[in-house]
Amino acid sequence: MARPATDIKNFGAWPQPPRELVPSETSDECDKSLVFGKSRIILGKNLFFAGAMILGGADEPAVAAATAESYCAARFWLPRIASRATRARLTRTRESRLYISHFLLHSRTEGGRAPTGCACYCPVYKALSPVASESPSHTLRKGLTESSTMNAASDGAACSGDRKPRVFHVVGALSLGGIETWLVHMLRNQHNSPVHHEFLLTKDVQGPYESEVRAMGIPIHRIPFNGSAVSWFVRARSFLRREAADIVHSHGSAHFTALVGAAAKAAGVPVRIAHSHEARHLGSDQQTIRLRLRRAIARSVIRQASTRRIGISEAAAEEIIGPKWRDDAATSILLYGFDFNGNDGAAERASRVRHELDIADDSVVIGHVGRFAPVKNHDLLVRAFARFAANVPNALLVMVGTGELQGEVEKLGRELGVADRMRFAGATQDVPAYMAMFDLFVFPSFSEGLGIVCLEAQAAGTPSLISEGVPAEVVVVPEAVDTLPIEAGPAAWASAMHKLVQRPAVGRDTWRERVENSVFGIRRCVADLNAIYAAALGSVEDSAIRRSSR
Question: SS3 helix, strand, coil % of the chain, rounded to 5?
Fold first, then answer.
């Protein structure tokens, strides 16, 4: 039989799969337990690919077919294959992957019907197909039931009788990251909130913010991610369905929000918000074909699984929707808002930090705040500092944060001969104290959703040198921030650092007031977020009324 047409957009004209790839279902050679055991890894790794493969037929058929790895193969085709050799052929050959993709995409064009038997093997298909979406039986819950049965992994209880819609914020852990810090700032200022906030965490670790969140009376639930996306999907779907969630608000990468959105849609949650806090697609380290393909797939799933999309900047909105995000009526920008009262008394606390880190009063302190991850580009930071320190004998580099790459950064410092002039401060909840200690804040990230720490530096009166990967929206005080391309290299960054530390400190005492009075004020952000919740819930209620009147 001839191969499928290379123009996969014309999938309606494809031939049926070769007969030898579809042996009898009654074959006694089929070892289903072996098949499912072997395919478990394939299935888990390709959950996002599967979602896009099923959903992307109308928008991105080329992407879907090119990545049609093996969700359907693992859950639908493999149990029907008679021999191990044939199973291997099915999962390895290009024709087979295209045929599988053809069947799923073709079924979508015919009313969203899966191939015979596919629905029972493919929970993601049932969750995301047009037929299964927006179950009529699920209507907007105006309040909580008198008694709510919590998940066994939950360590908090919902407030019974609180007639407010329940919002589940889905994050990894309540650590000291930018997303978590923003959420805590928002919750601290949520006076008479129109919704009931709760957290659903995917990591089984105790975060520094947990005690404060519990003290606010906010329930914390856990569904730990154990390495299997399918397992997490099923458990999250069951939990959200049982808890009668009104809003699921996911915070994280495009792939993370795609998975959360799919689970929420499967559970019948009426409002599903995908909130993008990063802009990884802008990073020069994110331009490989594989990463661009995964990003396109995640965007396809997010468009289908979420009812509302939010970006913390224009670049962050593009991360989850694409360049045409402005054409999407369900996508909007919600700039961060912060309470900058932590800067009160920061100078005194900075003195204590100097003593703890053994930093002399006359030292020139170059600072950085961020987790030790590839996107933060510590390699350029350390190399530029080494060149800068060669001409500034009393220079020190203080890095605040933790992460898997800290060991590599320490090793690089030893190789460059500046290890004794580097300080690793670890995680902290008192970023203002460190900003008050820095003579210059350096932030050479490949990309950022916004760059919260740059805001904190401006509010502290600390000049900043940032990369072009940081969105322009974060610059509130133009004279406080200088920008360089990463491609300029360590020598150019070192030269810029030298010029900035010598710049006179004129007018810095007004920077905090300018930041507080900007769009990044906390009151504006709280009001805007509550307005988004109200509009989303109102839209769902209107849709329910229209359906019932038909």
Answer: 50, 10, 35
- 261: exposed, middle or buried (Cβ count in 10 Å: 0-12, 13-18, 19+): buried
Name the range with the highest mean pLDDT among 86-90, 122-126, 325-329, 391-395: 391-395
Helices and strands (H, E) in the chain, number of each type = 22, 13
Per-residue b or e along 33-53, where b marks 16 or more CB atoms closer than 10 Å to that residue's CB: eebeebbeeebbbbbbbbbbb
- Please state whether the predicted TM-score (pTM) of the whole model is above 0.85: no
What would the pLDDT profile of 455-494 be if each residue is shown by its tens digit?
999 999 999 999 998 988 889 999 999 999 999 999 999 9
**Among 398, 397, 394, residue whose Cα is nearest residue 360:** 394
Q: Are 394 and 362 in contact (CB under 8 A)?
A: yes
Query: What would the pLDDT profile of 25-53 be if each residue is shown by its tens digit?
Result: 344 433 444 444 444 444 444 444 444 44
Q: Enumerate domains of the chain plus CATH numbers.
A: 8-128 (no CATH), 166-339+524-549 (3.40.50.2000), 340-516 (3.40.50.2000)
Check if the beta carbon of residue 251 is closer than 8 Å to that of residue 183.
yes
CA end-to-end span of the chain? 49
In the block, which residue shows the tokens 């960054």? Answer: 493
Name the 3-class secondary structure at 387: helix
- Contact residues for 417 (Cβ-Cβ < 8 A; gap 6+): 386
Neighbours of 84 (CB within 10 A): 14
pLDDT digits (tens, 9 = 90+) for 351-364: 999 999 999 999 99
Look at the chain and count its residues: 550
Helix (H, G, I), strand (E, B) or coil at 397: strand
**Side-chain-side CA neighbours of residue 173 (13 Å):** 10
Whether 144 and 198 have beta carbons less than 8 Å apart is answered as no
Structure tokens at 15: 């031939």
Ordered alpha helix ranges (H), 195-253: 210-215, 229-243
- 426 sits in the region (left: phi over 0; alpha: psi -120 to 50; else beta) called left
Q: How far apart are CA 232 and CA 541, in angstroms?
A: 29
Of 344, 423, 385, nearest to 501 (Cα)?
A: 385
Is residue 416 within 8 A of residue 386, CB to CB? The reply is: yes
Helices (H), 269-422: 289-305, 314-321, 346-356, 378-391, 406-416
123-152 core/surface letters (b: 16 or more CB in 10 A; e: else): bbbbbbbeebeeeeeeeebeebeeebeebe
Kindly list the strands in the beta sheet with 196-201, ordered across the sheet, starting from the edge strand earlier in the chain: 220-222, 196-201, 166-171, 247-252, 271-276, 308-311, 331-333
Cα 394 to chain centroid, rounded? 39
β-bridge mates for residue 426, sequence order = 400, 401
- Decide: 481 and 463 in contact? Cβ < 8 Å: yes
Residue 85 gets which letter from DSSP?
A: H
- What is the average per-residue pLDDT within 131-135? 34
- Cα distance between residue 337 and residue 418, in whole Å: 37
Report the pLDDT averaged over residues 339-359.
Answer: 90
Contact 2, 15 (CB under 8 A): yes
Between 435 and 449, where is the model more confident? Answer: 435
